[in-house]
Write a structure and sequence with these properties.
Elements lengths: L3 H9 L4 E6 L4 H12 L3 E7 L1 H11 L5 E4 L3 H13 L5 E4 L4 H8 L13 E8 L4 E6 L9 H17 L6 E5 L10 H14 L8 E6 L1 H5 L1 H6 L12 E3 L3 H14 L4 E7 L5 E2 L7 H14 L1
Parallel strand pairs: 1-2, 1-4, 2-3, 4-11, 6-9, 7-8, 7-9
Antiparallel strand pairs: 5-6, 5-10, 10-11
Helix pairs in contact: 1-11, 2-3, 2-11, 4-5
Family: Belongs to the phosphate acetyltransferase and butyryltransferase family.
GO molecular function, one term: acyltransferase activity
Organism: Candidatus Wallbacteria bacterium HGW-Wallbacteria-1
Length: about 300
């Protein structure tokens, strides 16, 4: 089973990846990069206010890095994206930049990191009860995805899971319950997604089931009590949520309420994984997000 211990070993075992950081003048950002740099995962290219960055790097003990001085928020994001676009860096990380500003630079049709795929956020979570990493998508980018967009979101999550070593990931399409109801359109989407899978969609995915309640997806015992026969229950690797709000609430509830959880997040669908979390997230979450991205490339 995939664990963050395994992800960290993957990230440490490869050549350090140059990471472009959009506004690196944040204490938790610098501390996370210091730890990742010390472990040989990455070399930071920090875009932002050079005086602030130098002071923070000195306090944290970060010595190996590059600085590109920039104080305008929009230009900072564009410069960080350009470092990936021109091949200087192989990964992009959100520092203190606003998510909207950074993603506008990423989505620029000429100078951004578009690939033709839609981008989506994939949160990787490990909790003691399950003793494995599972993925929640999309709680960060697409507010109200329709059926076609959900197909792209799930495909991105499958790509992430396989890149991290899950050879045949299993996925559940989360809804409030297993019953299909016309007044709950997410259940209709779940049926259509499973049909698409049965017709050869989502290459690399081992099983897809839905609509499925969260308890059934995470607990085989819950499925047994409900009389549900499932190849995914209790072993789902990917949880596809109905919309951004539900995914965001689920992920942040785990982040703030579950002891000893491990959490990281990346955006998939661009020309490289994008390390993207809330500016309020701690150093540990940023460090684990860096490890996720570094383990993928």
């Amino acid at each position: 089973m995939l664990s963050f211990s395994r992800i960290l070993n993957m990230a440490r075992s490869r050549k350090p990846r140059p990471v472009a950081v959009s506004d690196g003048a944040g204490a938790s950002v610098i501390k996370a990069l210091k730890k990742a740099t010390d472990e040989g995962m990455c070399v930071p290219h920090l875009v932002g206010d050079s005086d602030k960055i130098i002071a923070l790097a000195k306090d944290a003990g970060l010595r190996e890095y590059e600085i590109i001085h920039c104080t305008d928020p929009v230009e900072t994001a564009k410069t960080a994206v350009s470092l990936v676009k021109n091949g200087t860096c192989s990964l992009l990380m959100k520092g203190k930049s606003d998510t909207k500003t950074l993603m506008q630079a990423v989505l620029d049709r000429e100078k951004g990191l578009r690939t033709g795929n839609r981008m989506s956020h994939v949160a990787a979570v490990e909790v003691p009860l399950l003793q494995k990493v599972f993925f929640i998508t999309d709680g960060g980018i697409n507010p109200h995805p329709d059926l076609e967009l959900k197909k792209m979101i799930l495909a991105n999550a499958v790509t992430a899971a396989i890149a991290l070593g899950i050879k045949k990931p299993k996925a559940a399409v989360l809804c409030a319950q297993e019953a299909v109801k016309n007044d709950q359109p997410e259940t209709l989407d779940a049926v259509a997604l499973v049909e698409h899978f049965n017709n050869g969609g989502f290459p690399g995915l081992d099983f897809l089931e839905g609509p499925m309640a969260t308890d059934v997806a995470l607990s085989r015992r819950a499925a047994t009590i409900k009389g549900i026969e499932s190849s995914v229950s209790g072993c789902a690797d990917i949880l596809l949520v109905p919309d951004l709000a539900s995914g965001n609430i689920m992920a942040k509830s785990i982040l703030y309420l579950v002891p000893d959880r491990i959490f990281g997040g990346v955006v998939m669908g661009a020309s490289c994984p994008i390390i993207l979390l809330s500016r309020a997230d701690e150093e540990t979450e940023k460090y684990h997000s860096i490890s996720l991205a570094c383990a993928m490339v």
